[in-house]
Amino acid sequence: MSDPITRFGLAVAALTCMLDQASKLYLVFVVDLANHPLRLGPFLDFVLTRNTGISYGLFQTEGPLGQWLLLGFKAIAVVLLWIWLTRSRSRLTALSLGLIIGGAIGNAIDRLAYGWVADFVFFHVSGANWRFNWYVFNLADVAIFAGVIGLLYESLIGERAQKAP
Asked: Does the active-site annotation cover 45?
């Protein structure tokens, strides 16, 4: 683990997890989003949603068995991503994997502590006779999404991408 690229990725993971947890603790316990949602603009609110599933609210689980299965799946994913990180030779790959690992651990901490993941960012757009609601998410989800985009960029467009002849 003395490799500078691996250390960089792990530092990104730690920072991502800390920022995610700090934002959740502040919004859930200090601001008390459960009782005091925040309207930040015509299309953005902070509201507390207790997500017992995974991204986009898929695979909602109500009992401890489901929660432990999701935690087990997440633990396996983090270990595999960590192995990938130790083999990485690119700062973009390390950054991307660090974002994904940190976000996954941040959401896993919620699941262990509460039995659900605290989601709070809520985008919505409405007109005279219609309303579009985007799913509610948190900083860990943003980090995971950004990490996936980084990996896709590197594999499809970046310097190391396979170029057509």
From this structure: no
